[in-house]
User: Fold these one by one.
Assistant:
Number 1:
Amino acid sequence: MNPRFESPANNMLKWALRIAAGALVAYILWRTREIIVTVLIAAVLAAALEPLVDLLMRWRIPLLHPKTQRVAASVVVFVAFLALCVFGAAWLAAPVGEEFRKLNPEALRQAFTGFAEDIQKVYDEMPPLFRQLVGRPDQTALAEALGRAAETVVRQVTFWLSHLLEIFLIPVLAFYFVVDSGSLKKYVLSFVRPVHRREAMRLVRDAGRVFRVYIVGQIILCLIAGVVMGLLLAYWKVKYAVTLAVLAGVTRAVPIVGPIFSGAVIFVIILASDPRLALTVLVIFSVLHFVESKMIMPLLLGDLMELHPAVLLICILAAYEFFGILGMFLAAPVAAMTRTLITRYYLQRRDSQAGEGGPPGGRAEIGEGEESAVHGASAALA
């Protein structure tokens, strides 16, 4: 039967099968979303540590097989990375424990009372119009807001503790990705038809490039967070300013939980010596975190990954809604890779088909201004 003259029933059956297959794939992805996110985070960690392994592989050891030397180099890099994490956590925890023992409940109560009085004073000095817009400060509402913030911290810590298995699996998967990346790529490509393997390999290279760009962007954001907090803490003459600045910079790589954890640590340390300053720092830290996560991060990562900041911010919020914190962490590289796929397999093919289907001499029928506008629109979409 000529495919152009298929019956409506056959067309409806084909569309029903396609919809069912798409729904099945979506259901499988949803059920395995945490596994997928864990694998993607392991891929990001592997992309970050693989250059160090490649650097060690430049010094060839004649007595070792190249594969054996790569395993040894990977073990050295991962052991050094884990040791840095453990000793760094111990170095950062020491001042926190020391200052936590100095906390005085009576001083804390007075600090909260004084902080509420300061807010009332600021409110009284506001112009009448601002006071109407802001509303009268309520100390009970302030206490409830602080309680909700504490509940958020506890909830996020509980979330991470409930996912300890996935957290431990991340470095294990990353180790295998680094040690045997070549064989793993060949194994994955073996499931692809030979005629499509070159294109699949191209997609794998694009994914690696996206992850590397994302890592560079995260490093820049961590440096910005560390430097800004270091300057502020030094201005306030807070003890352990360098240590706390390093903590703020390193934990910035973990979305939401990282800044909450570093903010809580900084708050506790300042609380032991100057409770009222601690509350002020907490407010300023929250404002800075909002500006960084909602403005600076979309601008920086959007520029590096060629994504509009508004689009990137929407993707981050959607990923958090569906996949939680781990999905939020991977929203930027996944969005960049999705953009690459849409550009390559839809926009470019659509433009090429439109060019082939047009009348001969079609270029002559379009004015120079219109032709440049068409090229500009295509370049913007691509």
Number 2:
Amino acid sequence: MALETARRSTIALPAIGWGWVSFVALNLVGVVAYLHPFFFAETSSPDDRWFEHSTDAPLIFGALGALCMLLVVADMTNGRLNSKSLAALGVLAAFAAVFRTITLPAGANLYWLLVILGGFCFGPRLGFLLGALSLFLSAIVTGGIGPWMPFQMFASAWIGLGAGLLGVTANASRLPAPARIAALSGYGFVAAIAYGAIINLWTWPFWTAGPDISYAPGIGFTEALRRYWNFYIFTSFGWDLLGAVFNAVTLAVIGRPLLSALLRFHDRFTWEVEARQSG
């Protein structure tokens, strides 16, 4: 018995380690992919167009897919993820992909409703996977496959991750149901603006306009931040603001029944049988 326990311990520890390693690596890849124009803003190389994302999309997509698969395998090995939770991930991602095809006023849709609520109920790591998989499936459904797709997947994954962190905080604080809905509504508002601000980082390096908003090598970190702020406000802040209001209202109106349903599913997926000790 002692030998068997030792074997299980030696197997479990690497699995937990690989799960965290892959999760951290996923986020680092996304950060570098988005922020590299700022990291190298001090360099000046007029003949080099490295910042235009001309060749990095396949590399980013390959790294994203491989690390997501490693995270799933590691979490299933160490018990953080089971077959039922994995099935729930697939169902939620499929519904979110379908909802993204339904266009509402101001370009809004119900896609973020399921990503945010799913991440809130199932936690940060599953929320990250839900956001990435939902965007991937919706790109297939809508024909939106292109060099921008892996960057959209990262941005969507971070929205699911943030919702998962919000859920952990709400559980730790024992927030009542009305406060949870208010927190989700506020997060939905912020998430829409955050997604727009993040995803525009993909377009900005090769978007040509006036000197106050366009990217150029050698402009420096501070000037790059100033120009990107101007670019975002000028191009999409108003549009994202309308989506943010829609997210907040939708979560406030229909978030509670959907949250209750998802929490019931979560409880069913995570139950465990415990042996009763006699005497």
Number 3:
Amino acid sequence: MRIIVIGSGFGGLAAAIRLRQQGHDVTLLEKRDRPGGRAYVYEQDGFTFDGGPTVITAPWLINELFERSGRDPGRYVRMVPVEPFYRIYFEDGSTFNYSADREAMIGEVRRFNPDDVEGYLRFLEKTEKIFNTGFGLIDTPFLGIGSMLKVLPDLARLRADKSVYRYVASHVRNEKLRRVFSFHPLLVGGNPFQTTSIYTLILFLEKKWGVWFAMGGTGSIVSAMERLFSEIGGRMVLNAEVREIVMDEASGLACGVRLAGDETLEADAVVCNGDVSFAYMHLLPERYRRSWRDAKLNRLHYSMSLFVLYFGTRCRYNHIPHHSIMLGERYEGLLHDIFRRKHLSDDFSLYLHRPTATDPSLAPAGMDAFYVLSPVPHLGSGDDWHALARPYRDRIVRYLETRYMPDLSNQIVTERSIDPLHFRDTLNSHLGSAFSIAPLLTQSAWFRPHNRSEDVPNLYFVGAGTHPGAGLPGVLSSAKIAADLIGSA
């Protein structure tokens, strides 16, 4: 079959590779000047900045793409473990080193509250059970209500009705520990106070397979996948923005795409790695989609957006680890502001990424590359980021300088930033959401837009907005689902 894949994020690249491995004629279309989607790479002044995902878990999902073509993944990309996974900083100066080492973690828990060790161990056992059930569904399509009904007893048994925070709080009493073990949904766009407890499986996933980093940055994985796709006969077209999915009126099937320059490309099937809501609203006329009309899409809950500052420093901050989580004084209140009130608060919590802690080649000799990420409300808030971006950047730099990185404002030699407008205008994400549809229980599995369109039988979706959801394991698994569905069609 002739198959067009829209978008070259991890989901699009993985789907294109798998489909080419099945023998299909695959063309991958990318709006921007290089592949990657949210994993776009910025290079400036001798620094290399990964634009998006930096936490790599379940690396075998990447490796198997190469192994399926008889390639040694180690010849394409080198991944190394990061230890500790994260260092969590609290406002009172205390820190928690989060790792896979069971005894070290027990020691960390004991430092905060000895009485919580037993509860932590029970929690760890429960996350393994949740993982064994939940991860088994990660590459299973939920195309009919029957598939959802089959898993409801398991979801009820695992207390999927509880939020991640509530589930953690039922095992540990110390508030700081509750934050340490509940922040993970933020990595996939979810509010720990709303996201279903099924997402605690992330904690066991990290424990089982570790947290990894690709030397050269996450962009090196994109480059490796691009190279593989080309080697096995795939075709990628850059600077090719899709304006419309072309439909055959008689059959109700997708028959190709129309590009921004009005060129039409024919296809027997279309796989969309673009934001699901944007694609339905802007690429497919509403008369072809009874299941996902604009009104229904607008009623969904979307993930937060992000403000991200990429910066290089003339000195090295060797006390800063690879991954840092800096939790502000408020936790539930801040998340309530971001997700429910859609209000940009005066305070924030941050994720600070220092890849040069592991790979110094990403910056000039003796210098450091960073990005600092702050969750912010999506554009449903009405915030004017044209006016807000610079003062928000300045507040973050002052905060880091005051608490963690002395003289930072004078050490920055290069920088750039993105905000919710970038997610809306460049990445075509509805409302500038950074992770598409939020991972609520009522927006998971069968309740999410399906991997195969409910209305257009030869239109498929991969990426964060469809099943199983955001995060590299989820996005790569969505590609496997779509390719398997096409292969069995």
Number 4:
Amino acid sequence: MGTADAVRQNLYSIKLVDDIQYVLILSTDHIYKMDYSRMLTQHIDSGADVTISTIELCLEEAHRVKVNRSGKIYGFQEKPAIPEPSPTNPSCATVSMGICIFNKSSLIPILEEDARNPTSSHDFGKDVLPQTIEKYRVYSCHFVDENKKEAQYWLDVGTIQAYYEANLDLVAVSPQFNLYDKSWPIRTYQRQYPPAKFVFAQEGKRMGIAVDSIVSSGCIISGGRVVNSVLSPDVRINSYCEVDKSILLSHVNIGRYSRIRNAIIDRDVHLLENTIIGFDQKEDRKRYHVN
């Protein structure tokens, strides 16, 4: 019924283990690099019941958190029309990143009380955190970016447009988000596929080629052209195809002579020969979701 309710339904797994003292709650549609141990250390040292990771954004983008100079949170607003400026930077406001550490001893009664409230929507941002601030010690932990770029990187990809833009940024010559930092590897599940393969080199006829793109393992570019795109594992681009500024999820097969532009193709989709997407919005709306 809401983000807080989702956690409440899993409290049994926390209650089963006696030596759990702290619970870290994360949003799964955000992209950033963060060392959670820094946050946990601050949480313990401050004697907080709850610690919320925060970031400063310019006022027109910001919402949610009011912090005093000691770092204690004294107010929490969900997308106010006029955000309150940060005490350390008047041009910015302090924003919740949706990352929280709770003492186990605090989390359980907080969620159980919220579950009993018939007027609650059982959402952390709308209901739980504003109520918690009034009764518990809630502190802010400022985000320290591990991305090693000039501008700090934290992105909410909760919309199709944000998801699309975040993926296409990765194919830039120098993307904002660094996937290739060996000192901060990204751990993820990867199935075993053969290496990507590019076949046919008939200049002017058909050529398997991908430029300014990310091509995952198991992909076969068989006489087609891929530009400014992200290909997930096990994608096949057949002869005479053109794929531009697109994101293809796993196991996609693009039929011969197809032209795809500005598209997100979902996993396991097989497009017929001569499919055209992204060139005529009126026609696209008849068959596809147009954002």
